């Protein structure tokens, strides 16, 4: 018994703590919250249709995407089904809030290719990936 304790004591001198004091660093596969790069969104509504808790609303005409974070169960289904990879799961938990506010974003509605238009131009009109990352934050409306 004493010998066992001595061995454990000796080991503890050379190893790190078995526990973490605080959640300083997120775990590798931690699910924190959903984020959207609104410039990548084509407002297809697939995330909204597949979301098991029904907390995403997409308005294609108005080019808006809205999430109720208080109903989101962080399952990640929306991230998996998004065809343009506009959605991502961030490891960090969202900030605490005393108001049940929605997260709303406004983007640019995709335009349909017109008859006789060049297919390259049509693709560009649906997406403009170059300017997406920097503009994502400024499109947040709530
Ligand atoms: S986030 Fe993705 S799945 Fe949802 S509407 Fe936009 S493009 Fe479609
Ligand atoms: S993580 Fe799950 S519950 Fe949350 S918005 Fe996406 S599909 Fe809905």
From TrEMBL:
Keywords attached to this entry: 4Fe-4S, Iron, Iron-sulfur, Metal-binding
Gene3D superfamilies linked to this entry: 3.30.70.20, 3.30.70.3270
InterPro entries documented for this protein: 4Fe4S_Fe-S-bd, 4Fe4S_Fe_S_CS, Fe-S_Ferredoxin
Family annotation (SUPFAM superfamilies): 4Fe-4S ferredoxins
The keyword Cytoplasm belongs to this UniProt entry's keyword annotation: no
Pfam families hit by this protein: Fer4_7
PROSITE patterns linked: 4FE4S_FER_1, 4FE4S_FER_2
Ranges of biased composition (kind: Basic and acidic residues): 121-142
Domain 4Fe-4S ferredoxin-type: 32-61, 63-92
Region (Disordered): 96-142
Gene Ontology MF term list: 4 iron, 4 sulfur cluster binding; metal ion binding
Alphabetized PANTHER family for the sequence: ADENYLYLSULFATE REDUCTASE, BETA SUBUNIT, FERREDOXIN III
Name of the featured protein: Ech hydrogenase subunit F
Organism this protein belongs to: Caldanaerobius fijiensis DSM 17918
């Amino acid at each position: 018994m004493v010998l066992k304790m001595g061995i454990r004591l000796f080991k503890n001198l050379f190893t790190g703590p078995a526990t973490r004091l605080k959640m300083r660093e997120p775990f590798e596969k931690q699910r924190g919250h959903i984020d959207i790069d609104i410039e990548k969104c084509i407002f297809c509504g697939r995330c909204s249709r597949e979301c098991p808790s029904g907390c995403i609303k997409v308005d294609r005409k108005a080019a808006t995407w809205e999430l109720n974070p208080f109903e989101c169960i962080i399952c990640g289904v929306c991230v998996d089904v998004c065809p343009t990879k506009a959605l991502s799961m961030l490891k960090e938990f969202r900030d605490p809030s005393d108001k049940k506010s929605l997260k709303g974003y406004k983007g640019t509605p995709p335009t349909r290719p017109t008859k006789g238009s060049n297919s390259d131009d049509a693709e560009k009109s649906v997406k403009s990936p170059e300017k997406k990352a920097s503009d994502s934050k400024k499109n947040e409306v709530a």
